[in-house]
Amino acid sequence: MYWAAVIYGDDDPHGVAADALVAQCCARLQRQGWRVAGLLQERVPRPGGGKPAMRLHDLGSGTRICISQDLGPHSHACSLNPAALAQASAVLRQALHEGADVVLTNRFGEQEACGAGFVAELVALAQAGVAVLTVAAQRHAPAWRHFTGGVGLELAPTPAALDGWCAQLLSPRERV
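^ that's the sequence the OP posted. Answer follows.
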């Protein structure tokens, strides 16, 4: 299995720096000829304040899917939009169907830690031998270990860690 999660800590609120690092890695792989697909998370401030909107950037088509609901500037409730999450899961299934070399899933987060979210897509990609890269908060690292049966790598949020993963797992694989 080719599972890897960039694990970010409290010093990177919401994983914004980890997302930027993963985006750079994916762009570099694409420039090198790898078929990279999947979803990159973006946080977008809302006019008037409140929780930022969470959007997923489809690396293949360039479209953006808003996966959060605007619950108002004073809400602290979970704003995840399950219907939009289901729509985004189609991007991961399409990546599998099209034979991507590397698939990015925006997060191994609360939903995945509970067995929901993109769990089915993660399993299908890994079973097909597709390299899967995700981002996870430190608090979800134990769930990541459990989910992957201990074979999922945990990468530090550094360029060197991502470069090492790419070199170790992707260089022996054939590119089309």
